[in-house]
Specification:
Shape: globular
Number of domains: 1
Distance between the termini: 10 Å
CATH superfamily: Endonuclease/exonuclease/phosphatase
Radius of gyration: 16 Å
CATH architecture: 4-Layer Sandwich
Helix content: 25-40%
Strand content: 25-35%
Length: 191
């Protein structure tokens, strides 16, 4: 149970889907997962997470006005997650991997769709970067593209669209992970 997953999901409310998610996490031997684009009401998160990840811990960014965009869940026998920062577009914390005693920072992102709504995201990422001392993983769906081939369909990507994202990646010394699985679906990494 050492795998870390960042999973852009839809349709978590259905009981059949919840069972599918549970089985998938078991098959992947996931111990820490960030569910993105969840759109779950705050009052529905606990019962749903008990079905998908029984006996796991979790945290989310849902509130009374807005459905959750991110849920982070971890198996407490394998990981400990210490929340450090939470906003509508990201959840950031320090992770302790119990079997290896490794510590690292992780940030799960689900960016807003409109460019101007993502500005607080970039500012928060920069603030997090400036405060870090140690390894850091930044995972998620930024709703922004870095390269021409990062979008399927719709309007062609222009250089202006990639500018903010590229500047923050360079400024924060970030680099892309190699990914496993379908490019436009989900990524996962093993410690």
């Amino acid at each position: 149970m050492d795998r870390i997953l960042s999973w852009n999901v839809r349709g978590m409310n259905g009981p059949n889907k919840q069972e599918d998610f549970k089985i998938f996490l078991q098959q992947q031997q996931a111990g820490l997962v960030g569910f993105l684009k969840t759109k779950i009401k705050a009052q529905n998160i606990a019962p749903m997470m008990e079905k998908i990840c029984p006996n796991w811990s979790w945290i989310h960014n849902a509130n009374a006005e807005e459905r959750g965009r991110i849920i982070i869940s971890w198996h407490p026998r394998h990981y400990h997650f210490n929340l450090l920062h939470i906003i509508d577009q990201l959840i950031h914390g320090e992770v302790f991997h119990l079997s290896t005693t490794k510590k690292f920072f992780i940030t799960f992102v689900y960016g807003r769709n409109l460019e101007e709504q993502r500005l607080p995201l970039w500012e928060n990422i920069e603030t997090i970067f400036q405060s870090l001392e140690g390894p850091w993983s930044l995972l998620g769906d930024f709703n922004s593209v870095l390269h021409q081939g990062d979008r399927i369909g719709g309007v062609e990507v222009n250089d202006g669209e990639t500018k903010d994202f590229a500047e923050y990646i360079q400024h924060c010394n970030l680099q892309e992970f190699n990914y496993e699985g379908p490019f436009f679906t989900w990524t996962n990494k093993t410690i």
